[in-house]
Structure formats: C-alpha cells, structure tokens
Amino acid sequence: MTQQPILSAEEAQRQGARFRQLIADLRTEIGKVIVGMEEVVENTLIALVAGGHVLLEGLPGLGKTLLVRTLSDALDLKFSRIQFTPDLMPADITGTTVLWEKPSGEREFQFEPGPVFANVVLADEINRATPKTQSALLEAMQEHTVTVAGSTRQLEEPFLVFATQNPIDLEGTYPLPEAQLDRFLLKIRVDFPSLAELHDIMERTTGHEVPSAQKVATREELLSLGAVVRQVPVAEHVQDFALKLVLATHPETEESPDAVKRFVSFGASPRGAQALILSGKVRALMQERFNVAVEDIKASAAPSLRHRMIFNFEGLAERVDPDELISEALAALERKSEHDVPV
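^ that's the sequence the OP posted. Answer follows.
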C-alpha cells in the first residue's frame, strides 16, 4: 500500500477548499438533470470521493440509472453500462479470450476486455441476473483485478461500481449474495418523488430542451481528493462510537438492543466500520471540518449498515426494516454514553 504524504495545515486548507468547490460543482451539474433526491445525491457523492461502491435500491422509473449516467457525465472518467438480465453470463462482464487470425495466417489467443474495464461501471438492475453472474463482480469490487483464463489484470483507478436494484419482492429478481452486498460501501434507498418534484420532472423531461451535465472534474482530481479524505483525523472516542455501533448490530453482544437479538442472525462486518469512518470523513469535509464528529457517524449509520445485517426467519417473516434496528442501536448507545459521563 502506498503511503500518502502528511499534509501541512496550509495544504490541508487548500485541498479542503478545492474539495468543497468540486462537491458544489458536481451538485450543480447533477441538479440540472436530477430533481430533488438531495440525500441520495449526497450519499452518492460521499461514496464517489471515498472510492466506494454504491447500491441504489428503488422501484423502476425513479431516476437511479439517470443519476449514475449524470454523475459520469460530470466526471472525466471512462464509463460503461451493463444491463443485467437472467441470461447474462460472467464472461459478458469480465471479458473472455478469443482466437484471432493474423494477416500471416497464424492464430493466437487474445483477451477481449469486458465492460467491467472502466472507471465507472453501471450495473443496471443487478438483481435481475443469477447469483452466478452477479459473482463475476466479486473480485473486481474487492481487489480491483479481473482474472480470466489464469491471467490477472489490474483495473484502472478509480474503479467504482454503481449498481441499481429493484426491491427484492418484485418478480424476476434474485437476492444478492451476502459477500457481494458487503462489498458495497453504501446502500441508498431511492423513494418516490413528491408532487412538487413530479411537476418539476414533467417540465424538464417533456419540453423541447433536454438538460445535460458538463464535465467539472478529472480523474487525477478525484484521486487526489480521495487521498485527502483518508488523512482526515478521527478521535479515539469517535472511532469507539463507530465500532460499538457495529457491535450493536450483532445479536450475541451485550450492547445490542432486544430487537437485534430477536430478528438478526449476523450483524455488520468490519467493512461496516470502515464505511462508517470513511463516510464520516467525507461528511466532515463537506461541513468544512478537518475532523470527524459523532454526528457524522450517526448520519452515515443507515446507508453504511442497512445491507450488512442478515435477518433470521422471524425477521424475514415480519419484514423488519433494518433502519429501525439501526435507530434502536443508536438510541441504546446514546443512553449508555449518557450514563458513562463522569460527574
């Protein structure tokens, strides 16, 4: 792992100002196309800067694919789109080795890269494909490499997967494997727009002008800002709060609330703690702070942990909302911290 140089106070302020300007520019360009969805856009930008993958869940037609396309239009990055269907094969994602014939008549095997070889990969309706095909992204999402026919190839940085997912109870969908869910930094829910937002959507999409986003950031800028994010300090008590929150999602721990003990089989993995800390660092910079606060961890809790809790049969039968369990875990931690404050 390459160690980043420690920034001076002046350089940190300069990079922080550039960070906020880039976020503002991206918000502006996205706002030209996307109506509302403020929280969705904020969390998507957080994952983008943190270098993490995003799972967008919502009913068809709510603008999930359009959001990812708009974001890629605002970035000078290589973009590819994969439409997941039941007949999609792993080789359609990673690529395959084909036999080519040279002008001289000789034949040789050459690797034909698949659409995963891009900076921003839109995995559209990812849960329409079978688990075998979904698993083709596992290595790429974790190691940023692709292995085909015994050869491993490195993906260019940054490598980001933005996957859209229909609700699991829709016909023709397959649940994502737990190992793949855990590789998404955030799971973001896309809700139905309000009446005012629907009016605005109609005005933008049924007129003679189609709004579009302009490029505002390069690949090098995005990578440099990601390096700045990782140098934001985290106080020991803030990290302790994040780790205790992750432990509170495990039914076997003392800190977990009764609802977690009743409905959850397995809690969030260490990747959940990493998502909390990284998201907190980005939120701190967005708030013009160069340190992470407990409030940043609380704001990142739901998108970081909601897809990392595995329910037991009772939890699945009662269709328990993971966000409610996360809220209960936060409330339990706050009550405990109040009791632990020295007089």
